[in-house]
Amino acid sequence: MSSSTPPSSGGLAWRIARGCDANSCVRVAAHDEMIVIGDTKRPHGPVLSYDRAEWAAFVERIRQGEFDDLL
Questions:
Q1: Dist. CA 5–CA 3, nearest whole Å
Q2: Which of 6, 14, 17, 21 is the most exposed place for a label (fewest CB within 10 A)?
Q3: Do 1 and 50 form a contact (C-beta atoms < 8 A)?
């Protein structure tokens, strides 16, 4: 994982959840071989980036309920 500013925030195809309310959501985009995560409240702010294997492992653990105690 690394932290940086988006390569070109306007050039990324950001995705947010359909149920995003009041523009306070996590946004996700693919950039080269990385998955980039940002905050919709800070469109030009820092982002986190993960390689696809890290992202797949994280999503799988979410599906398995590993983080449900954080809700």
A1: 7
A2: 21
A3: yes
